[in-house]
Amino acid sequence: MPRDKREGRTRGKRGKKEKNDKEEVYDEGYENAESNEPVQPMVVDQDPNGYQQDSHNFERPRGYDPSQAFFGFIDADVQTYFKSVEQTLDEPPFETTQDQQLFVANVYTEVQDKELVLATDHSCSMVLEKLLKISSDFELRVFMDRLTGRYAELFTHRFASHVCQTLLTLGAASAEREARGESVPGPDEGAKESGDVGVLLSMEELVLSLCKELKPQLCSLISDPFASHVIRVLLYLLAGKRIDEDNDVKGQLRSKKSQKYRNTNNNKDIKLSTKASPTRVVPKSFTDMLHELTRELTEGLSETVIRTLAVHRVANPVLQLLLELQPETEDGQNARDMIIDRILWGIVSDESTQSNHDRDSWFETLLRDQVGSHLLEVILKTASPSVYNKIFVTYFRNRLAKLCHHPVANFVVQQLFVNARTTIQLELMVEEAVPGFADYLKFGKVGVIRSLVDACCNMKACEKQIVSGLADAFGTHSPTERKDFINCVIRMWTYQQWIHATDEEKGSLKKFHMQGALIIQTLMKLPEEHNTIVVSSFLAQPPAITYRWIFDATGSRVYESILSSPNANLKIKKKILRNLEDKYHEISMDKFGSHLMDQCWKVADIDMKAKIAQDLVNHEYDLSKNFFGKYILRNCNIDHFKRKREEWEEREKGIERKKDMFKDILGDTSMASTKAAQTAAGVNIPTNPNLGDLGFGDGVTQETKTSSKSGKKKKSLNDHSKSLLIDADTAEDAQEGMDDIDRVFKKKKKFASANTKEDAKDAAEENERATEKRKKAPKDLLNVLDAIDATNKSKSKKKKRSKDGDDEKKSSKKKRKFEA
């Protein structure tokens, strides 16, 4: 209840007016700040630059703030022109690229010498952003050159900061093209111009000039609500990281309001390709400038200022980025430790074993602060092993049980678990945290449980203690109780909650907990002796119950994790697939079930694939009309199954044989037994061999040949030239593996077919290098490769003999005809 109502008082008109003034905010959506501040009243009788104005003829622009930079007013004609430009940009795309280029060039001609005024205007700045996104590299450089000398004022401006952020985002791609030598020069570029204009700088030089201009004011800019986001984009650019604002989950690049507005009104960015690299090619000068800015923010500031920035809502994300964006080199790690040393009161440089009271108090503040705790999470992630161990021993050892219950500190503890450096550290954490699993579950700190399970899975240690601790925490002690282990974990309920729940609650899929599903998926990555508790509980459930999980976003992932686990028994997978017989067509037509269908096809043997294919054929019409079903028909190659079933079966059998043969190399999990293939070949293939040690290079792309003969029944296990047709998930990996193997065999062919001396010399050198690499390979796999090579040689000799025999027969026939 408000204080006024509790005390029986009412707010007067003056109070209501002041309250409304405080709640006044800027225009909804177009906001780059972390907080909303009221528009300050403007002095009507005085110009912002200090000159007296006529109060009757003065009209302030929309959203004007006298505390920000002011570069003049926009004429009504220019505003009208920009409205027409915006309409043209929002309409369907231009018919040709030349029309678009001509239109953009004309607009830049009209706005020449007005860039600063337009960038600080509310409506025109949004049009400028749209215009920049379709501009060429040359036009971006010209526009950026016009802003030089005013960046500090523009970065802190409410509207101009958005224009600068868009300009830097596009400038990152332009700088990469320059570094690659792919940038297209502008008209008459390179020729020295007369007068005061000079030569247009490159994007690299413009960015470096911008950084030097901002360097003295960097401390104040990172704490400014408008400039902070632009500085973050600048750090991304210098570090060579790709700026992906669409997947900006943490809000590092844009505030929530700015992102919302961008998605609804001004989102015409070029979509990043899913195959795009997360890094960009940048010149070395950008890396050097990043180091300079890092030193400016660490050595150039006092410890008091740095600690203030560490808990500042706006500046804190910039410090996080400085830690994350450092290069993965020794110099980069030294830079990280230097930043950590300044933030944590000399924890890196202090070699004494005595405790520092000031540092301890400051660490406890960061640990429990809603803003500072985020920075502490990044410190644990990026610190060197020695610094991490010092932090763990000094501030977390023997305190984990208490910190796991704290509403803020428990998130830092989760990062401590996930980023454990050694198994000894993890064992100490498990020993201290596992007994409290029941309490964490009771009070809703399930993230702590999941993070510790993930850490054990990543480090491959303490699996037994984790599984035992989970069983005790959920109350599943006896074998009968453990039959419902998966039901308890997926809902994050204890066994007592499960048995006392109603049938409606037990059957509700809405009770599924995301953290519980993640725990089950991680448990299925553990060795077979540790994931048995999950598999046994899953098989103990009625098939009708688990079948409903397939059509739920959470339940389908649990179902899929059991089928895709490399540590699950093959008989168990077959049993699961048998339970789904005659239901595959229904699964294929579901949004979530279609993903599970791909996994079922991936692990099924030839007999089960035939049953699945027949079920899909029986409902082909319905599947072809369904959005998801038609992709399943294509992935399973149902057309081929209907027309040439024998050929389809031969091809699938060949796929299985090749999966078994190269299972460890391709990382595939097929249902056929690998041991049987190894016994047939008479060798033992080593586990997880290194492709580099085996003499395989980066791979030469080569199209595999498909066999057109359907009547041939016998196919060699060592025939590497046949097509490797695997589903979409493993096709790329399989192709790379087969191309590497083909390359080994082609090296000798290249040596034999060299006609000139130079070609023979190059082929000989390649052959020698391949031989040296193959000497390092394990003997067992070399036996397999030699057997394959010998098989190919014998086949080529037989073909050559048959060809020579045919030629002799033809020549004898011609001779007889001639003599006759």
Automatic annotation (TrEMBL):
Segments carrying the region annotation (Disordered) are 1-60, 250-272, 680-718, 750-820
Alphabetical keyword list: Repeat
Q: Where is the composition biased (Basic residues)?
A: 811-820
Entry-linked SMART domains: Pumilio (SM00025)
**GO process terms (BP):** endonucleolytic cleavage in 5'-ETS of tricistronic rRNA transcript (SSU-rRNA, 5.8S rRNA, LSU-rRNA); endonucleolytic cleavage in ITS1 to separate SSU-rRNA from 5.8S rRNA and LSU-rRNA from tricistronic rRNA transcript (SSU-rRNA, 5.8S rRNA, LSU-rRNA); endonucleolytic cleavage to generate mature 5'-end of SSU-rRNA from (SSU-rRNA, 5.8S rRNA, LSU-rRNA); ribosomal small subunit export from nucleus
Gene Ontology annotations for the cellular component aspect, listed alphabetically: 90S preribosome; nucleolus; preribosome, small subunit precursor
List, as start-end ranges, the regions of compositional bias called Basic and acidic residues.
Answer: 1-10, 756-771
Report the GO molecular function annotations. Answer: RNA binding
Q: What is this protein called?
A: Nucleolar protein 9
Instruction: State the organism of origin.
Output: Umbelopsis vinacea
